[in-house]
Amino acid sequence: MQIADKGRIGIKMFYSSLLLVHILGLLVVVYGDRGLVNSSQLEMFVDEIPDMPRTKGYDVVHGVPVSKTLKITMFQKYWKFHKDLPLTKVFAYGETKRTATVPGPTIEAIHGVSTQVTWQNSLPSEHILPWDPTIPTAIPRNKHGVPTVVHLHGGIDEPQSDGNSNSWFTAGFKEVGPRWTKKTYLYHNQQQPGNLYYHDHAMGLTRVNLLAGLFGAYIIRHLEVEAPLGLPSGDEFDRPLVVFDRSFRTNGSIYMDPVGNNPKIHPQWQPEYFGDVIVVNGKAWPYMTVRRRKYRFRIINASNARFFKFFFSNGLRFIHVGSDSVYNERSVLVREILVAPSEIADIVVDFSKSKSNSVILRNDAAYPYPGGDPVNEINGKVMKFIINGQREVDPSRVPKNLIKYPTPSLSEVLKTRYIAMYEYTSPIDEPTHLYINALSYDDPVTEKPKVGSTEIWNVINLTEDNHPLHIHLGLFRVLDQTNITDIDTFRECMNKLNNAEKCEIEKYAVGKKLGVEAYENGWKNVYKMHPGYVTKIIVKFGYIHTNASYPFDATAEPGYVYHCHILDHEDNVMMRPLKLVK
């Protein structure tokens, strides 16, 4: 009996050891041998996509919407990005810690009814990601606390509520930045209906605060204008999709390279962050079960630097209805859409047109865009749609004509400006910093448009990257994109003089012209500035849907900004102040 028992124990120990070796082998395969998750071994399409919590930015009294004050807090908590990943420490927005999510709750506002938000910081004294004090950065005096401030991207609101990068504050407002204004922000919601995006905007920390999870969707609805369009509506058929990329360590934490590309100059800063895991609404490569009918998706690219060129694996098409915060004048049927960081694509997909019962939303944008590495089988897939086989009656529609806003007239233009984008490199030809008009953020303001005015901006991209330019408060349309011939000679002159007119830009901007995609031919607040091109835009510092004046003083402090929306560029420091004047 004893010999037999020992034999059985030995066999059990053998198989237990074999099982342990097998498990360890799997861990090496999945997690790699350098402490990083091997994303190629994570199973795709196993987590169902969540719909983020929806928070009404208004109350209803006797059937009438009225203004409401929200209290939304930034918490540190743990988040599950994938069923096979450990919990991940994140920063998350929410009304409570339990309900806080990545991305944060979708705030739904109504045109003409203001929303007030008290943004509260309950984050710990230390950041969960490495940050670099050698770039212009919000640093508390006592070196404790995570500075944050919220910008409503696409919002047309007072400067005090715009989330100026130096209006930051730490937990409990214990410390505040030099341009801090107030605890409760006022969003007027007087602008055209459309899609906005709230996110952190702290000086030098935007890239790490968004990587940690501080962003979410904001929608302004205008029933009288939108209901006649008949687009898919209701929580089931009208869904924000917030797309971003991340990499992870084996313990579940978000991975960000702790060593800079020029470590002797900037110990941590890297010119672009790219992760191999594609996340939608907080889940890695999720799936969504849909019915054979039309759905509306408000797609926000919340990545630091990754562009997405979306397309469907079976040739299904997108019906593009809105870009950034504005409806298109006409709906546009396309096979693919290119979405830069912080651009928003408002689309409708008709799954009744699919010949298959499932389809993968894919990506084909090189990184960095446009001249970087091609996508692979990992970062080239975004999410999967599982399509119900039964056809059904679909009451929604997509009209050809949507919402027409007045076309800007060149006769209204008060001023023409030249805006040049520069990248500077070290002796080893690695980027050290990026400027607009060869100026840092703290240099005196040079752009002072008049309230209500229209201007022409000629944006000159002297770099090799595509830079998505975002203008706070203003809306613009793209008029022309012209290649700069003999750009090396022109760049050499610009590096010496920083003056496009003295460098005779008109002599060099005579090359190939790029057409504007039909789905981007309307009003925008972000646009992709092609490398080696002059992009002419017409900018409106006033409402586009009415001649009414702003219901606030746009000339107040701390003013506005404009910047590249690749967050790593914005932080170091491709951003300039924008001061409106009467």
List the helices and strands and how they pair.
Elements: H1 2-31, E1 54-56, E2 58-61, E3 64-79, E4 88-94, E5 106-110, E6 115-121, E7 150-153, E8 184-187, E9 194-200, H2 206-212, E10 215-221, H3 223-226, E11 238-246, E12 277-280, E13 283-284, E14 287-292, E15 294-301, E16 308-312, E17 318-323, E18 326-334, E19 336-339, E20 344-350, E21 358-363, E22 381-391, E23 413-425, E24 431-436, E25 454-461, E26 467-471, E27 475-483, H4 487-497, H5 505-508, E28 526-529, E29 533-540, E30 560-564, H6 567-570, E31 575-578
Subcellular location: Endoplasmic reticulum membrane
Pfam families: Cu-oxidase, Cu-oxidase_2, Cu-oxidase_3
Membrane topology: Peripheral membrane protein
Q: Tell me the domain tally.
A: 3
The global form is globular
Total beta strand runs: 31
Strand order of the largest sheet: 13-12-11-15-20-17-18
Strand pairing plus helix content: what structural class? mainly beta
CATH fold type of the largest domain: Immunoglobulin-like
Q: Indicate the CATH architecture of the largest domain.
A: Sandwich
Mean pLDDT: 94
CATH class of the largest domain: Mainly Beta
Poorly predicted ranges: 1-33
